[in-house]
Amino acid sequence: MPLLHWKDEYEIGIRSVDHEHLALIGVINLLGDHLDPRCGAVEIRGTLGEICTLVATHFAHEESIMRDLGYDQYAEHKADHDRLLGEIREIQREIGAGSAVDFRSQLGERIGRWFGRHFETFDARLHALTDGPGLSMRE
Fold it and tell me: Which of 15, 19, 56, 118 is deepest in the core (most CB within 10 A)?
């Protein structure tokens, strides 16, 4: 079950970042497949681990670009990144501890909602900045 569908407005115009966004959506949608009751917590934990690794690497890349650009909302954007990483790690702890939380019904919505909102707000603003004339960061 896809949790996110690619939208052209998710592109920020930096090829490597856009490629990472596509890869993240692919793994997030794999998580959606693993939320099927026939899959176990092992598959979900593994996919969450993969998402966490990809997200951390992607965020470091995107934050480097923002610093290089002198991005005026870097702190807010980074705080949103940190919030998601913290949330993923908390979900991993809950699942690992055998929490009674019904993670299957909440997990897909939590992850999908965060990425959709982040792409549509923070990354959309970064896209507007990278569309400026003479920007050397575009690949």
Answer: 118
